Amino acid sequence: MSEPLPGHALVISPAEMAGRTGRYEKALSELEGLFADGEAYAARLAREGDRVIYHVDEFRPSDAAGDLITGISTLSPGRVGAEFHMTRGHIHARQDRAEIYHCLSGHGLMLMETLDGQTVVTELRPGVVAYVPPVHIHRSVNVGDTDLVTLFCYPADAGQDYGIIARSGGMRHRVVADGDGWRLEENSGYVPR
Hints:
Layout: E1 11-12, E2 17-18, E3 22-27, H1 38-48, E4 52-59, E5 68-75, E6 79-80, E7 83-84, E8 99-105, E9 108-114, E10 119-124, E11 129-132, E12 136-142, E13 148-155, H2 163-167, E14 173-178, E15 181-186
Antiparallel strand pairs: 1-2, 3-4, 4-5, 5-13, 6-7, 8-11, 8-13, 9-10, 9-12, 14-15
């Protein structure tokens, strides 16, 4: 891991984020239960082993209120059954905290959902900034054929609650392939909060 540059500057390239303070990766095996088609998931897992589906590099100066966490999320292209690759998704533990995602490359979606199940989608293409308002569950979905790379920024004291999606049987809508594009499909296993 690189040390922060003087003045805490970050240098962003497609290969890495110089100055990062942390990195995590999510392999296909860690996304069990995320996709609707269990058979397709098992077949992909057997075929590709522990392939990394996405990784996140971050610069976290502190966890103090008033500070900001900035980073780069890279989500690979692909599908499991009809569903596109996606991140696990979360809501902030401090639900009144917002977040932004600036698309640097690729084609994807920011899939957002209110606590009462209203879905909001922002299409991500290079140069688009998605604003995730407070009290919104959110995840990235790669609907393109190259890596979806986004720069994100959120308050350092926001925290994440990843379990909110699992407790509801997923998000209300799934993003599935539709010809050469995508569409939203109701999640039959969704349990209203």
